Please model this.
Amino acid sequence: MAGKAPGWRAMTAGDLGAVSRIAGEVHPAYPESDAVLAERQRLFPAGCLLLEGEGGALGYALAHPWHRARPPALDTPLGALPPRPGVLHLHDLAILPAARGGGAGRRALGLLAALAGPLPLSIVAIAGTAGFWRAQGFREAGDAALEALLRRYDPEARYMERPPGPAA
Model:
């Protein structure tokens, strides 16, 4: 008998240890402090999801309202959310290798798109992942003014947006 398929649920403060562990495994070149991860969850819990399977936490998604075309710097607290956001910014979507390929990422994006309502989704695609994000309906939306900030992520970083609504 096969086990239950992994599913997304609301992340809680008690999940942050697992989130930190997954982040360290999936994104070792992009470390973020536990305080930054906790702040994201505290400021906008509706945008924080945990992928859970029989073996425990398998992935997470962190998203929050933010300014359009002005992604926050890595490992930097936000302080507060903007009163009139232009996007729902997907700070991170990380899934352990063993849990990839089953559509969990698409399901998380569907949940976040519904949460975003009329706002586009945005992300900074790192480490050559722009192709994956293009397949999810994201398109490069950066401009020359963003280049200096994006280089702080990595040389291949791209600011991308996906229009409101379900994925195409």
Summary: The CA atoms of residues 130 and 158 lie 7 Å apart.
